[in-house]
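SAMPLE LOG
Freezer: B-3
Tube label: C17
Construct: single chain, 269 aa
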Amino acid sequence: MKNLIVVVGSLIIAFAFNSFLVPYDILSSGISGLAILLGIITPFNTGVLNLLLNLPLLVLGYFKLGKTITINTLICVASLSLGLFIIPAVPITDNILLSTIFGGITGGIGVGLILKYSGTSGGLDIIAIIISRSSTMSVGLLLTAMNGVIVLIAGAVFDWEIALYTLLSIYLTGKMIDTIYKNHDKLTMQIVTTNGEAIRQELLESIYRGVTITDGYGGYTLEKKQILMTVVTRFETIQIKEIVQKHDEKAFINIYETVEVVGEFAKNH
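STRUCTURE (predicted):
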């Protein structure tokens, strides 16, 4: 189901690009925006360029974000590249302002869906998620800030009017992402289990977080248990619950909001 949503989100992004942005030389955010730019000024297809530019960041994502997110991201990049290749770059409207607005909003919906279901659309999404995991900044805000360079490139290559349309599109994309994807919030998870070691090993292999373990026992049964505590982002809780329940279906999981994190939030490698 998650993979299907990632594919749908990717095709929404491709539709936003080719039906609203590309026909008017309006760039999108991140690596996809660079792919659009290179596709405009070179004879290469935008979809092929998007795939090639994302490969190095997929490797970074594997080591920093884990296998699950990387696999979903790979599905997204492949789907997006295919969508950009097969969807004709034909404008839906002859109004450039409408194309800018709806291109930014539609693209943000696609990216937000992908992020919400444990994936990224590749490119700067990977870097933004890595930074947001160890800071209080939202993914949408980070993407908007980092994409200032796209605006400068658009202004230098085309003209500053196109750059301003690009800025509007990127801003709307970022706002839509933050509307859908609120999973940068920090949460504390306490896991009470009888199979702490197996859970600890898989958590350390799968998420970019440290884990603190204490020994305890059940107040009613007096059975020996391990208590695992970790601070994570909201979207990581889905993956963690799946890991815990795989090793101990009777594990007790307590999740509560974290107001502030002082010290190391990300796991040291």
